[in-house]
UniProtKB/TrEMBL annotation, chain A:
Domain RecA family profile, chain residue ranges per copy: 77-252
Family, similarity comment: Belongs to the RecA family. RAD51 subfamily.
GO biological process: DNA strand invasion; double-strand break repair via homologous recombination; reciprocal meiotic recombination; telomere maintenance
Keywords on record: ATP-binding, DNA damage, DNA recombination, DNA repair, DNA-binding, Nucleotide-binding, Nucleus
Source organism: Elysia crispata (lettuce slug)
InterPro entries: HRR_RAD51_Paralog, P-loop_NTPase, Rad51_C, Rad51D_C, RAD51D_N, RecA_ATP-bd
Name of one Pfam family that matches: RAD51D_N
Segments crossing the lipid bilayer: none
GO CC term, one of those recorded: replication fork
MF terms in GO: ATP binding; ATP-dependent DNA damage sensor activity; four-way junction DNA binding; single-stranded DNA binding
Main location per the UniProt record: nucleus
Official protein name in the record: RecA family profile 1 domain-containing protein
Cell compartment(s), UniProt: Nucleus
Highest taxon of source: Eukaryota
TrEMBL record, chain B:
Subcellular location as annotated: Nucleus
GO molecular function, one term: ATP binding
One Pfam family in the UniProt entry: Rad51
PANTHER family: DNA REPAIR PROTEIN RAD51 HOMOLOG 3, DNA REPAIR PROTEIN RAD51 HOMOLOG 3 RAD51C
Transmembrane listed as a keyword: no
Organism: Elysia crispata (lettuce slug)
GO CC aspect terms: Rad51B-Rad51C-Rad51D-XRCC2 complex; Rad51C-XRCC3 complex; replication fork
Annotated keywords: ATP-binding, DNA damage, DNA repair, Nucleotide-binding, Nucleus
Name of the featured protein: DNA repair protein RAD51 homolog 3
Domain of life, per lineage: Eukaryota
SUPFAM superfamilies with a match to the protein in the record: P-loop containing nucleoside triphosphate hydrolases (SSF52540)
Length: 330, 357
């Protein structure tokens, strides 16, 4: 935090300029100085400096919350959103937890987009939940949602109301993503003014995250890491404060190793790998372009989780329409 | 400068598009949220952070813009579309036909406007032929179901062969007249398509090297906003430039990501179809002991396109197209043919004709 006018009565223009000329601009710097010597050096009354210090400490410190309050809060606001596939739900110990960031990583055509659509479709099934779907590509397909929904709700009016609660936003860079997230936060925190179909936002899907981040990657590693951890903090904060589940899709990078020890891992590096609470890697025997068609079986491997044992994998089928699942957990 | 504090309550400045050095200096000075800048002007900023006055002015401008944006309540959120709106819009999406009916119906009517479609294939599988055919077909008049638009054709390896284009255009004109006659009430042709018109509507850009390509792509936004008639952007061949003279993999990733972002943005903003071609490369999986042919230029690029069609030729010379990636469509393989007229459906009787004498 910077020292600024109006923070405290003692912090007048004159005092501020004096502090600036002594090279003190932030509250942190001010607090860490010895006030007595500062008072002598800059000819500012000691009492004034004390009151400035008191204000800046009070303004910047956190206040304690009891664990009991946190627990009660969690009980009242926690929801577990189904992914729409029994196998995946079982793998994730129920589904997507609100307040957490879940990541799906996989190669192209490994079924990431489809799973995201299933999650969206099953989230809007309940109550008046709504979903925000953010992507850089135009991968959002209403057809998948309709197919999934029409399996169990043949009433067109029900489908219509569900569809209208899934929102799609196409963003083209990281800053646009940040400002969209900021708006969501602001919009939901002002309760009276929130438009009704945003009120129970339960799931935010962010697809193709690396494509949003790579254009902002400069050659300076600290800046890149800063960007990634800032995004991580933002997502976690959003998930926690608004009690929504965040689902992110990521790519895979690396080489194929000998035997079973593939070096394929989720993109965006070590810093990002700390961010998601749960990470699932999807693996599909896709044909590439050999002569046989791709198998419709996808292996989902849980590699990071706070609840389940890892690594742990399950296989499910990608089909047109709703998920047809053969449970096989290993 | 007065900022309405409650609007941008504590928004971190790190989420704004400021340059990294300036950002670093601001953060060192403890100015980490937007409200911190209330009642600051460039000279105080200069004194407090060591940022030059000019730079300080730019920073304040960006901040000011942001505050203004948040003033227009939830600008992004209120423009958001729900799946229902998109479903209604989906029926209105226009397509550019390929003249291969099987392929058109596989893609729900042709190459969709507003999306990025990629054709991949080994040399000689017909990628450039598809591009030429699409460039011609983009100007089929609206009265017989075309999009009646112009084309920007970016050629990187000299595959824009004008004689071939003329051939394709000539038979396309004939085909359109025939369709128009059968559709028309008086047995007269309603369509005024001529070969000159087709050739006039194709703007060819030749580029040599990835720097030129990047420059052209970044300029496209301007070109498209000046000429609203453009409905198709073709890049043939995207991969060739990035597979040579570019050893720095980080740079390649950065360039490709910027390219992807720009092309996606253009496709969405101007509602044009973007068609790219890509080469193939070999991926070796030691565990399985064999290798696969996969589209080139990396794993990240593979995620960019909405639709991907892989073209191949088998040992008998039969061509086939595989719809490899498309949301909500099954992976399908179907035969097609390239003859004098361009891309056409594969007709079975041809196989008998082609028997050796």
């Amino acid at each position: 935090m910077a020292l600024r006018l109006g923070m405290c009565k003692a912090l007048t223009v004159e005092v501020l300029t004096k502090l600036h000329t002594a090279g003190i601009v932030s509250a942190a710097e001010f607090v860490s100085r010895d006030l007595e010597s500062l008072s002598k050096e800059l000819h500012i009354p000691y009492k004034d400096l004390c009151s400035i210090q008191r204000v800046s400490l009070a303004e910047n410190s956190a206040y304690p919350v009891s664990a009991l309050a946190l627990y009660q809060n969690a009980l009242s606001s926690l929801a577990i959103l189904s992914t729409g596939s029994d196998v995946l739900d079982q793998l994730l110990d129920g589904g997507l937890y609100t307040g957490e960031v879940t990541e799906l990583a996989g190669d192209t055509v490994s079924g990431k987009t489809r799973i995201c659509h299933w999650c969206a479709a099953s989230t809007v099934k309940e109550g008046c939940n709504s979903v925000l779907y953010i992507d850089i590509c135009k991968s959002f397909t209403v057809g998948i949602l309709m197919d999934t929904m029409s399996e169990e709700a043949p009433d067109p009016q029900v489908i219509q109301s569900r569809l209208s609660r899934v929102k799609f936003l196409q963003v083209f860079d990281l800053f646009q993503l940040f400002s969209a997230l900021e708006e969501v936060e602001l919009c939901l925190s002002q309760q009276e003014q929130t438009p009704s179909d945003w009120k129970s936002l339960k799931l935010v899907v962010i697809e193709n995250l690396p494509l949003l981040i790579y254009p902002n990657m400069t050659s300076s590693a600290p800046y890149n890491q800063g960007t990634l951890s800032r995004l991580g903090i933002k997502l976690k904060q959003l998930a926690d404060s608004l009690s929504i589940a965040i689902l992110v899709t990521n790519h895979l990078v690396g080489f194929y190793g000998q035997d079973k020890s593939d070096q394929r891992k989720a993109a965006l590096g070590k810093v990002w790998s700390q961010v998601p609470h749960t990470r699932v890697i999807l693996n599909r025997r896709s044909c590439g372009l050999s002569n046989f068609p791709s198998s419709s079986e996808v292996e989902a491997k849980l590699v990071k989780s706070g609840r389940q044992q890892t690594p742990c994998s399950a296989t499910f089928c990608l089909s047109n329409g709703g998920p047809v699942c053969q449970t096989s957990k290993t | 400068m007065e900022y309405p504090c409650e609007i941008s309550y504590g928004k971190a400045i790190t989420t704004l598009p400021l340059n990294p050095t300036g950002l670093g200096k601001l953060l060192c000075a403890g100015l980490n949220t937007v409200p911190c800048f209330a009642s600051l002007n460039q000279s105080i900023l200069n004194l407090g952070t060591g940022i030059s006055v000019k730079e300080a002015e730019q920073i304040l401008k960006i901040l000011c813009q942001d505050v203004k944006l948040s003033f227009h309540k939830f600008e992004q959120l209120s423009n958001i579309k729900s799946a229902m709106d998109l479903h209604l819009e989906e029926q209105k999406v226009e397509h550019i036909v390929t003249f291969c009916e099987a392929l058109d119906s596989m893609l729900d009517g042709g190459i969709p406007l507003g999306e990025v479609t990629e054709f991949c294939g080994a040399p000689g599988t017909g990628k450039s032929q598809f591009c030429l055919q699409l460039a011609v077909n983009a100007c089929i008049p609206k009265c017989i179901g075309g999009v009646e638009g112009e084309t920007v054709y970016i050629d990187t390896e000299g595959s824009f062969i004008i004689d071939r284009l003329v051939d394709i255009a000539r038979s396309a004109v004939a085909h359109c007249h025939q369709v128009s006659v059968t559709q028309g009430r008086h047995g007269q042709s309603q369509c005024d398509l001529t070969m000159e018109k087709i050739l006039e509507s194709i703007h060819c850009l030749y580029c040599n090297g990835y720097k030129e390509l990047m420059a052209i792509i970044l300029l496209l936004q301007k070109i498209l906003s000046q000429n609203q008639k453009i409905k198709l952007v073709v890049v043939d061949n995207l991969a060739s430039l990035f597979r040579q003279n570019l050893n720095d993999m980080n740079l390649r990733r950065l360039l490709l990501a910027t390219l992807a972002k720009t092309l996606l943005k253009i496709a969405a903003d101007f509602n044009v179809a973007v068609v790219l071609t890509n080469q193939m490369t070999t991926k070796i999986i030691p565990r399985e002991g064999n290798s696969h042919l996969i589209p080139a230029i990396g794993d990240t690029w593979a995620h960019v396109q909405t639709n991907k069609v892989v073209l191949s030729v088998d040992c008998h010379g039969d061509r086939s197209a595989l719809l490899y990636k498309a949301s909500n469509k099954k992976e399908t393989r179907l035969p097609f043919e390239i003859n004098n007229d361009g891309i056409r459906d594969f007709i079975h009787s041809y196989t008998q004709v082609r028997q050796p004498p």
